[in-house]
Amino acid sequence: MKVAVLDIKGKDTGRKADLSDAVYKIEPNNHAIYLDVKQYLAHQRQGTHKSKERAEIVGSTRKIKKQKGTGTARAGSIKSPVFRGGGRIFGPQPRDYGQKVNKNVKRLARKSALSIKQQEKAILVVEDFQFEQPKTKDFVDILKSLGIENKKSLFVLGDTNNNVYLSSRNLEGSEVVTNTELSTYKILNANNIVLLEGALEGIESNLNK
């Protein structure tokens, strides 16, 4: 599948990029996408929630009232869960929410996500570019030239480029990743995917193992 390569001004360079049908033109597998996105979101949870149980409450151990004759229920400790300030029954405890997803399923999910974006005509291929220094204005100019300044965008680089990353960091709707950091969630969460030429080979290599 041939796709036009644009420059940072949004103009056609006259060159074509060859996108593999095995990555960008498959029948999307919705269940694989569901599993991969579910794992990604689960890994975002810190799992540090914690409430104190009865044994962890600091308080008096004195029996708070006599056993009989009060007309109310028996009560032996102020730390009981039935009293305000007492321990919590079956409260949340620290845990790992991580889930395991087979590597082949993850690759299938990412190829499915890319194929969906290609069907939506939401993938742009742009020639590699560099910034001499981090500058948000320069990155915004590229977004405007490509016509995606008011949309969520995901830029995929071939290699780490600190100046490009820092230039985009203050923009809420844009994210910059390398081809090895590409995830199903990030692909689907963006309105437009901007693939730099230098990332194409790495993406296809990672997803066709």
From TrEMBL:
List UniProt keywords, sorted A-Z: Ribonucleoprotein, Ribosomal protein, RNA-binding, rRNA-binding
Tell me the segments the record calls region Disordered.
46-77
Enumerate the InterPro entries for this protein. Ribosomal_uL4, Ribosomal_uL4-like, Ribosomal_uL4_dom_sf
Q: State any single GO MF term.
A: structural constituent of ribosome
Entry keyword Transmembrane: no
Question: Is the keyword rRNA-binding assigned to this protein?
Answer: yes
Q: Write down a Pfam family by its short name.
A: Ribosomal_L4
Q: Which GO terms describe its biological process?
A: translation
A GO CC term assigned to this protein in UniProt: ribonucleoprotein complex
Describe the function of this protein. Forms part of the polypeptide exit tunnel.
The family this protein is said to belong to: Belongs to the universal ribosomal protein uL4 family.
What do we know about how this protein assembles, alone or with others?
Part of the 50S ribosomal subunit.
> What is the name attached to this protein's record?
Large ribosomal subunit protein uL4
Organism expressing this protein natively: Lentiprolixibacter aurantiacus
